Amino acid sequence: MARTTRSSTRSEAMALALAEAEKEPERRASKRVQKVSEAKRRRQEAEQIAEQHHIEEHMALQRKRKREEQRLAAKVALEQERLKKKQKQQQIKAAKNAAQKQKSSKASSKKVEPLKVGLVTLSDIKKGRGGGPSGLFRVPSKAERDKVYRETEKAIAKLEIAQIPPHGGRPWKCRVTIKEANACTSNKKIKGKASKLSKQGPLFRWYRGKLELACLPNIIEQIPETKWGRLMDDDELGINTNSLEARKSTSLTEAAMEDPNQPIIDRVWVSPLHETFRTRKSAMENAAKLSDRDKLIDKMVYGYGAKGALLRPFKPTRKQSLEAGLYKFLRDGLWVVGQEESWQEDNLCEINRREALGLNPSTGEKKVENRYLRPVEEFMLSKRDELRNFRLAKMTECGISAKDQKYAYKDAHKELREIWREMSSAERDVWRVDKVGYALPIEGMYTAAATVVPSCETPAMTAISDVSSTDSSIPCSVPSKILSNPLQTIDIKSFVSPDQEKSKPKKSIAKRNPAADVGRTCKIFHIETDTWYQGRCTGYNAETGKHEIHYTKTIVEEVDLKECKCMWDDARIITESSHWRLKNSEIILCYDAIMDHYAKVMHTVSARGLQYELADGFDVLRERGRGRYDMEVPAFSNPQFDFLTSPDAPWTEVVKTILGDEYSLVHKGAFLSLPGSSAQI
């Protein structure tokens, strides 16, 4: 029975295995069919995607061609209009030339009479008249000619230096020399051919009863204008209607310029540093160099910009300080080391004062309340930060390090302009209040723009609505590729409405505890008196939000620091530099030596009654003024004071910069100014 059951089980298993073997070819065939259909489906999808991309590229190419055709048509129209204007101008010019030729032919047909030049004697000069009917004459007296030359030289020199900026308040000088042509030539043949009239100098004329050089107005007009222009007006130069510098050219002066016996004018420019230049080009180059030096000195030493604007505090570098100090020493002969840091606090006080009064912090002028921008400018200024942050974030996602991320504001402006060109009129109306003129002031821009709602079905938005701004396939590895097609990477909806600026979350700023200001000294600015007052914060009222300021023992005031200008004394941003300064221990050592030497000398003076001889001075001490002494300290020669003369002394770099490497020590001493001493002159 068991054998029968076991054989039946084996037969069933064999039957199942045969059945499965018969079905295996069918299964393989079905799998093969599924793979073929899947490959076909994928191929069809790829073809559809490629066709869709091709359509989008074709549409973009059509839009680009359309824009190029419009630009070309506008260019052709402008060129045609320019050609028409040019033809019209040529016709007008030809007509004028024909009329001028006709006039010249008529004039040439008439007999041209030569210009009659007369002579003026000494008696005529004293009477202030004479010279002939033409108004031009010669002066035989060389002494009288020289008088006119000297006055003419002063007038030309005054106009020459009026166009060159001064250096440190000292003006340039121009030495003008007028020589007669026949006196300057060394050729005997030319002198022999010179007529008797040519030996009597150039042509002169009468002007309001005064003798002057006839060609002077034309010489003045030939003075070229420098890049600085006229730096002084007529009142500052002392020029009036009767001055030689105010002469204007006329037909008579033009005729005098055609005279072959013109005077020779030599000019020599002398700089404020007593450098001489014989050509105008070299003088102007040196003037530009000195002007740049003045700008550097004003910036570093006095805290003023190139146009006289007040600068905010900054810490100059060692190189800038040395360069400005050298130029100031060459200009003024004096540079107080550390002077580049003395203006910082004064400028900060003045800037805060101007801001409290509502003035321009740099110039001190009244601010312009309404400032107008064009719609495209308002759009770019409002969206450039958002676009720049988006681009930098995309570069970070693509694995670009922060050091290699290059996307500046100019790149954002370029891309935003492309977006602006693709925007429709409805989208632009959000940023444009007045389509003909300018937009509203910045203060009212967003409120006015909020009344215009852009349509989401515009052509520019429809063409871009299918493109996702977060697509991982955006080429972010190279910034130039990012800028190549901005419409494929930016959703224009996020750059249309300025209402999104209101919904941006503000950054949280940690608030400072106002009670921490108690005990600090400060300066409070009062607008009513336009004055800073020194005080001390002694308390804080949390209910009113005001600080209690003690100005004196009896004057106390509660001040809301949010509504007034306050400068804390311990909030100095620009710290003093350590350039060219001794250490504290070295300063104390020098101070003790100086005071010890002063006490010994004054003891000897008082013991011997030599007080009246201090003004004449001794070898070791001299009184420069009341309470001010110039002294030689013998202790400075001791080895413990070698830090004053060593090659590593703090002022060695300053001395090398000003005097050069070849310098030697001449004197060692100290200046002592006691409390209450007289001012140094």
TrEMBL record:
Residues 1-112 are annotated as: Disordered. It comes from the Eukaryota. Residues 35-60, 67-82 have a biased composition (Basic and acidic residues). Residues 10-19, 89-107 have a biased composition (Low complexity). This is Uncharacterized protein. It comes from Leptocylindrus danicus.
